[in-house]
């Protein structure tokens, strides 16, 4: 798909657009309203404030709402504008959605930390963190419209109402559409800073909570949606990098003149860890890459063997000194001393790759004078909305324009902007030619950034009644929060808890992978509870019901999933059910039903049920889709996916040896029950994925009496467990 450079500056955008832009105040931003027909007023206002519109109105009733979040299939291109439109009382059929400028000081979310504003689509925080921002901005836009209509009609604003893009004054039987009101719009002297009580009660929502089709789906279906991989610019050249498969190794190129003589090759650009090639076409760049002769140095990763390192981790777990303490509640040592019974179990998980569908890629064009640059990329953004490009090019951030595109999958990988920075390095050398950098699948697997390998040592104590009195969780691995998150048991009433992280670094590139530490750590926690229940002769449901007695919202998901899965009805012969609870923003309890082929070691998941409390649900159908996608991805990682490293080198290279779940392996049914709630919405993208491993393992324990404690549950590991 060809795209010429039609991206224009914000100043030209204002000059050339019809309608008005409402500059709605966010975090102290002064409200402004600019008529796009008055160039002098435009210049005057732009001199004071950059373009920061949340919405643009046109006289043809078109409403353009700006979305500040990345869209990678999770639906933010609909959910956030929907919140704005709800409070604005907009006719959704007349709404168009576009990406906002990548300017965090205006469009950033305040939901990360006090005083911070980030444009960062990760951690299932997008809807939660923008919930009040978008609603308040929508309510303020509505107030501007009502105030303008009241002045135009010379009636009190208190008598004005709105409905589906119309202003109504019932006493005089007057009605005007938002579009027809455009010529009469005036910014009021003051703009209310709406409180929660002044916004709509969730029971009054007309759009939120309804099954409304996602805005970007038609373009994705007919092929008109632009991903970064689709971008073509005049004069564009192509870049690739050879990074090797030993993380951190430094290259020495031995045949530079031979490569430069190859057809289409324009330049060789060395990096500390890679050799870059720029060529006229992608094919020429890849051909040259195949011909590179490189001597690679040793690195920190040299000698690392992923399947042998667990013995070292076990020794680290057995050391007497503590690591970094994460949780210390009650008196765990005392609980152990007074316990009627003590349990000690190790759980393990191998490295996992993101396997996003669209290969990593970016386009960067540096101006001939080196003073400005443009970037086209599918990114989950980050602490720096300019994605590291200003530092690479040594130019001011305001001179870098980032044009965000749809993402063909992220799962945390595209919150790492190494591929954008690499493209900037190549583009700096090739200015003013635009450079497209593409990572091949082999690049991304061999030099990927993986979910960390880790070992969790759990120790639990119970009293004579079988109640859990103490719980200790020691995480051994690299990556800090990547391995040590999600060790809290806030919804379980366990009086004595201790959790720590013991660092073990092997020089492997690591990154957030969907649900981060929840996958391995909730697997360990939930499986430990079922092993205790099994040993004590308790129903896992009853054990959790007792532990959740003081957490009514969590308990409600447990009760609901027990109902929809017919937990108390025995499975047919050869099958069994297992359950798991996860909190990751949303609260969810899942149940799966499995069978096992005892001759091959293959586990088959037949059904999966989830009960979810995610607060206010903006898009119910999309929430269900998120849960289904999360479960499928969880199953793939649990049953199939594995990165192995021998002598520091990644052994897998593409999907022929990095296995993914296939169509024939998906469950016969996935059912999601959404519990009604008026609480602030929580993320749903990472609730389902972590519950899969523990639910499957717990079903396996119930079916066979054998535990599964090492992810993934490959057939050989299943057979080993069955024969132990």
UniProtKB/TrEMBL annotation:
InterPro entries hit by this protein: Ald_Oxase/Xan_DH_a/b, Ald_Oxase/Xan_DH_a/b_sf, AldOxase/xan_DH_MoCoBD1, AldOxase/xan_DH_MoCoBD2, AldOxase/xan_DH_Mopterin-bd_sf, N-heterocyclic_Hydroxylase, OxRdtase_Mopterin-bd_su_IorB, TAT_signal
Pfam entry (one): MoCoBD_2
- Outline the extent of the Aldehyde oxidase/xanthine dehydrogenase a/b hammerhead domain: 222-300
Q: Which SMART domains match?
A: Ald_Xan_dh_C
Gene3D superfamilies the UniProt entry points to: Aldehyde oxidase/xanthine dehydrogenase, a/b hammerhead (3.90.1170.50), Aldehyde oxidase/xanthine dehydrogenase, molybdopterin binding domain (3.30.365.10)
Q: Which PANTHER family match?
A: ALDEHYDE DEHYDROGENASE
Name of this chain's protein = Xanthine dehydrogenase family protein molybdopterin-binding subunit
Tell me which species this is from.
Answer: Arenibacter arenosicollis
